[in-house]
Amino acid sequence: MSGPPSAAVKCLPSSAADHSRVPSPSGEFADEVPAEQSSAAAAPQHPPALGGESHRPGIARDELQYVDSGVHVRELIECATALLGTRPVAAERMLLQALGTGVDVLSGEQRARLRSLVVTAIAQQPGREDDLAAAALAAAGGWADISVGDAAHHTVIAARIHYRGGHYRSAAALFARALSRGELPYPQEEIAVLYEQLGRCLDEGRRYRAAARAYTAGAAVIAGRTQWAELHADLTDAADRSRQSARHPGAILRAWVRSSQPDGGTPEHR
Predict the structure, then answer these.
(1) Rounded Cα gap, residues 192 and 227, in angstroms
(2) What is the DSSP letter of 35?
(3) Where are the domains of the chain?
(4) What DSSP string describes 174-204?
(5) DSSP letter for each residue of 93-153
(6) What is the pLDDT of residues 159-198, one digit of tens each?
(7) Judging by beta carbons within 10 Å of its beta carbon (0-12, 13-18, 19+), is residue 38 exposed, middle or buried?
(8) CA 140 to chain centre
């Protein structure tokens, strides 16, 4: 981002001095990030030099630097939040800058929230699936010691991306990690589908017994729920097929060979 830091975060015209500033995201950063006493429009174009006299008497050099850093991070967050729905590339850039410069002024939870916003920004940019998976895992790591549910949710985001991309081994590991925590903030039927996707990943890796256990676990989640009877039956059938595959792996190979022939017959010997 070119130009001085203060210029990079000017989202509002100077007429915004009437307190019509960009709203803080859900107010979660309002309490802990140091706030400037004057309005955003009255902020200086450049941070005051720490080597000379300060325009804010009574504030020590290190305190002044801390406050200036907090003001800059606050402005980055506010602008990024305002741009998130319309200019996700710019929002992502500002959020990453806030994460980089706000190490000393952001709490662990605030950093985790920013990483979640980075995931939201990248998700609106088609063709960046790998970056989205990486950002989701970074967010999961940020939430790990704060909220098990949020950490699991972001792990699922990464798992689904790997699954759609055909990376079944890594997807299986991520699905299993998320499901093992037991605090996914999803309805039961969606958790059952996650077990189904885990089972398919394990089937692809010829881990049939583990796949059968995944399908069975998914069926158990929605057992007795009539509105999900069809999904329950699908999971039960998939578990039976995986157990059959574990007992007779050669039969599965022969069935695949037959299905791959145009006439359903066996391949010719040449």
Answers:
(1) 13
(2) P
(3) 1-11+23-36+62-125
(4) HHHHHHHT----S-HHHHHHHHHHHHHHHHH
(5) HHHHHHHHH-TTT--HHHHHHHHHHHHHHHHTSTT-HHHHHHHHHHHHHHHTTT-HHHHHH
(6) 999 999 999 999 999 999 999 987 899 999 999 999 999 9
(7) exposed
(8) 7
The pLDDT confidence band at residue 255, using thresholds 50, 70 and 90, is: low
Residues 6+ apart with CB under 8 A from 40: 12, 16, 17, 21, 75
Query: Tokens 């970056």 appear where?
Result: 131
C-alpha dist (Å) from residue 23 to 29, 56, 79, 93, 120: 11, 26, 9, 19, 18
Chain position carrying tokens 């509105």: 227
- At CA 168, angle to CA 150 and CA 92, rounded to 5? 45
* pLDDT tens digits, one per residue of 41-90: 333 333 333 333 344 444 444 443 444 677 888 999 999 999 999 999 99
Q: Which of 228, 223, 198 is nearest to 213 (CA)?
A: 198
* CA dihedral of residues 34, 63, 2, 103 (deg, nearest 10): -60
CA 192 to chain CA centroid, nearest Å: 21
H or E segment and range at residue 233: helix 229-247
Q: What is the sign of the dihedral through the CA atoms of 27, 28, 31 and 34?
A: negative
Residues in the chain: 270
pLDDT, the chain, mean: 78
**What are the tens digits of pLDDT across the range 197-243?**
999 999 999 999 999 999 999 999 999 999 999 999 999 999 999 99
Burial of 170 (0-12, 13-18, 19+ CB in 10 A): middle
